[in-house]
Amino acid sequence: MFLHPIAWPEGKRCAASVTFDIDADTLVRVGRPKDAELRLQAISAGRYGPTVAVPRILETYRRLELTQTFFMPGWVMEHYPETVEAILKGGHEIGHHSWMHEDPMDHSDEKEAELFGRAMDVHIKMTGSAPLGYRAPVYSITPAILNRLIEQHFLYDSSMMADDLPYEVVTSKGSIIELPPHWGNDDWPPFAHMEELDYVMPVRSPSDGVKAFIEEYEAMYEAGGFWMPVLHPFLTGRLTRWREMERHLERVVEQGDVWFAPMKDIAEYARAQGDGLRKDSLDC
After folding, report:
1. CA 241 – CA 244 distance, rounded (Å)
2. Residue 152: is it exposed, middle or buried by C-beta count within 10 angstroms (0-12/13-18/19+)?
3. What is the 3-state secondary structure (H, E, C) of 211-244?
4. Which of 82, 84, 102, 144 has the fewest Cβ atoms nearer than 10 Å?
5. Neighbouring residues of 179: CB distance < 8 A, sequence distance ≥ 6
6. Are 208 and 198 in contact (CB under 8 A)?
């Protein structure tokens, strides 16, 4: 089923990390900078994520004894310090997710380097250490960003999609572990509807939308793979949607044969596979 299968620790059948990108109100502020403050509907929808949904998600994780990974732009960390504190108190990981969810395709690499560094400073100040993982806004990672991650000793990235399982990306600067996302495990297609960002899609019912993630899980479980949904608190953290996800997580945890871990632990385990891990060399 896989060209380079991974035997998970303690005989677990499958590895899993339920990740959340806490973008909050950066989306409308970056997407509509001239009049974002007037767009209270969009701003309030974003604010729902860190203020209402994250506490709900953290309570589920506490009850199920799960430690997982959240990605936060530096701007969001600064503006929602209580959210950062609550995530860290639960023992969870916080990964780098840009300064303000800017698409790096929209500015020079010099500007991107400045914004990347600004977010790094916030991470170190608020968490006490540099982040180990990175996920690019809208998965828009560039060769320059990839090499910056390697040069700054990041353990892993989660923006590229060249495999189903963790793999090693090799460049002229070194290498990094890739924990690959893909759009079928992302909650924007089924749940996002933001006219302010020119993203107007039919919103699926909670059970129908979450069903797609469950089907992804079932295939990975059967094959002994890696399940990593990419979720957003203001979308899947809504009460009814999270109820569907929570029920699924309860069933999986009860099975006892799935390794739930923060992404840094999965990346460290993948790195330890050495030559058994698939390598993808990029000319950059």
Report:
1. 5
2. middle
3. HHHHHHHHHHHHHCCEECCEECHHHHCCHHHHHH
4. 82
5. 17, 133, 156, 157, 158, 166, 226, 228, 263, 266, 267, 270
6. no
pLDDT in tens, 184-234: 999 999 999 888 877 788 899 999 999 999 999 999 999 999 999 999 999
Q: What's the chain look like in SS3?
A: CCCCCCCCHHHCCEEECCEEECCCCHHHHHHCCCCHHHCHHHHHHHHHHHHHHHHHHHHHHHHHCCCCEEEECHHHHHHCHHHHHHHHHCCCEEEECCCCCCCHHHCCHHHHHHHHHHHHHHHHHHHCCCCCEECCHHHCCCHHHHHHHHHCCCCEECCCCCCCCCEEEEECCEEEEECCCCHHHECHHHHCCEHHHCECCCCCCHHHHHHHHHHHHHHHHHHCCEECCEECHHHHCCHHHHHHHHHHHHHHHHHCCEEECCHHHHHHHHHCCHHHCCEEECCC
What pLDDT is stored for residue 250 in this prediction? Answer: 98
Contacts of 84 (CB under 8 A, 6+ apart): 72, 77, 94, 126, 127
Show me where the domains of the chain are located. Answer: 12-274
CA 42 to mean position of chain CA atoms: 21
For residues 150-156, give the mean pLDDT: 98
pTM: 0.96
CATH superfamily ID and name for 12-274: Glycoside hydrolase/deacetylase (3.20.20.370)
Q: What is the mean pLDDT of the chain?
A: 96
Unique residue bearing structure tokens 């001239």: 34
